[in-house]
Sequence to fold (774 residues):
Amino acid sequence: MDFSLNEIQTMLVDSVEKFIARDYSFELRQEYAASETGYSTEVWQTFCELGWTAIPFADRDGGLDGGPIETMILMQQFGRGLVVEPYLANIVLAGGILRRVGNDAQKTKWLKPLIDGDLQAALAFVEPQSRYDLNNIETMATADDDGWIINGRKGVVLNGGNAGLLIIPARTAGGTTSEDGISLFAVDGNADGVSQRAYPTIDGHQAAEIRLDNVRVDATALLGDAGRGFEPLASVIDEATLAICAEAVGIMQVLTDKTVEFAKNRVQFGVPIGTFQALQHRMVDMLTASEQSYSLLLWATMANSDHTEEAKRAISAIKYQVGTAGTKVGQEAVQLHGGMGVSWELDIGHYFKRLTAISQMLGNADWHLDKLAD
Amino acid sequence: MHVTYTDEELAFRDEVRAFFGTAVPEDIQEKQRLGIPLAREDYVQFQKALFNQGWAGYNWPVEYGGTGWSSVQKHIFQSEMADANTPYIIPFGLGMVGPIIYTFGNDEQKARFLPDILESNVWWCQGYSEPGAGSDLASLKTRADRDGDHFIVNGTKFWTTLGQYADWIFCLVRTSTDVARRQEGISFLLIDMQTPGVSLKPIITIDGTHEVNEVHFEDVRVPVENLVGEEGKGWTYGKVLLQHERTGTAGVARTQYRLSQLREQTARSVRGATPLNKDHNFMRKIAAVEVELKALEYTELRTLAAVVSGNAPGPESSILKLKGTELQQATDELYVEAAGYYALPYVPEQFTLDYPDDDRVGEGAETDASLRYFNFRKASIYGGSNEIQKNIIAKHVLGL
Fold:
């Protein structure tokens, strides 16, 4: 039994920590979030140069052969730095599909530029009516000559407004909630019939509502086998769930540390407020929540890494934990910071907002608890 | 013991209900329905309608132009306002400084300030908190030094809600440091915001809105006749005011209204999805908040019944603020949960009456759920944080 990181993993932690400490102040983060794209293209290039965008891909695809543990490390640090660059959308979600079911030609066309930073991508797995059910897909793809015609609507597509490549799960057979009959298509973001309504999200990231009106793609757009898209999609979503949970754990750790630090320094009634026992206990609860979350994260990440049978349950467990304990930690950090906690100026509120967004994504606490109760 | 209304009270309720059925202009009703932020004029227009009806001072004694209503009548009035989803009555004038002036002010001050407060001709804001004086309000540092017929005020007030609309500010200021207890030497001063040396800087909150402010005073000359009550006794007056603020923030009827709206929302099939009320987990959460809210409704009735009109409620009103804000926040959280992915879009600009339908994101006020949730984290912080409420209850109610 060993929870320590290997040499390469330790180097990864160091390199992200250094980057954030040196080049990613909260003030800069706020600038990037407020920009048109919602992130910094320069910072993204740096991620590419540092090799971070190549981590989860195979060596023969230009990747670094990393797995869930490396992604966890990276995302946890991104959480600590409150990073807005669309790593989840590009690398974990879109990249995850390409890695699994892309053929050589598709990888050359889409994956290489994605890793190099020449392409932004998005996986449009949410529909306005689908809530958290991946199998709930109304978007239709109809065979036409040697290609397909796609019609439908996608909602809250992360990085959707920036994406040159949209991966569209669409129904080629079956009823609205059937797992069979879902196919995955690589669609050019600028193709005729694609319209994006992009907007910032509450956490400083970016998303879009996307309409597909008679969008024509040729046969090479089909990723994997027709009608067999659900399995790779679900597996990518599992990875993405772990990734945002890692990010959330990083945030919970930072919020706990910052709250303790604040309580040591904020003087009211002639003493630091951290001397009040009632508040001390609440910070202990924050620490406990954060440590318990990290433990579940490790379990789930290793289970997924080793493809054990309990992986699905472990992923639901950590997402449930993040949705409940994470929410509590976020609320407590704000409350203990008092008025400053709800000010735009301070970072605390922005960490809290990211936790809130993560909590609503990829299945909320109830949704995952239901999976565990079944 | 009974909780049924008398025939007179029922008749009163019908009268109030009929009034609120027509008193709120349609555009304001529409804004309220769609969760669109109200403008200064909207609030003033609503409060003037109340004034014209003779109800602006619903909490005030008859002698000062108020209604002189019983606790039950006030309760009915507030509940009907909530059910009609009217704008809030901005508390700073009618709910706070008005009662302070008619309780502790002199005749001149009453004649000078009360009519404009009742008629909503003058917008007031509150200058209590400071950067270094939050929960520990008595540590406030804004100074008012006597110079002949004037006080010279220097310092900074923080979290001044809607100060950008205000004509006047009521402040707690330090007039003496030579005191045995820090609570002494604090005075209650009324300051015209137009006085040279007063400046205001917005504070943006995490929902991205400008509601609160930082107000600076640099050598601001305030005539001594603007001092309310005795010099150095401001803390006592201010405490009474905070207790008013605590009763006001229970907001039981408002939260009940929001919960009933949420129930209706869960029955609708949004964008073709299974209605949320088929999700038993979620509906149980609504039910649990409803139970606590019912309890609080009765706690509030008990408190109101015990209060003699014109006097400040006792420390037990702390329970109301504490629980009231918890339930308000729990309700906000349920709205976020109901919105699901559509809690994520940040599109405040779509909350205007003429926003093009094609560009709208989400259904109804879905995308407003998070912003409201974020904004109202303040509810357990302002007016004496909930931790301070617990201290007060522990000390004054439990005697610990």
User: Anything to note?
Assistant: DSSP finds eleven helices and ten strands in chain A. The CA atoms of residues 139 and 152 of chain A lie 4 Å apart. Chain A has three domains: 7-119, 122-227, 231-373. The longest strand of chain A covers residues 206-218.
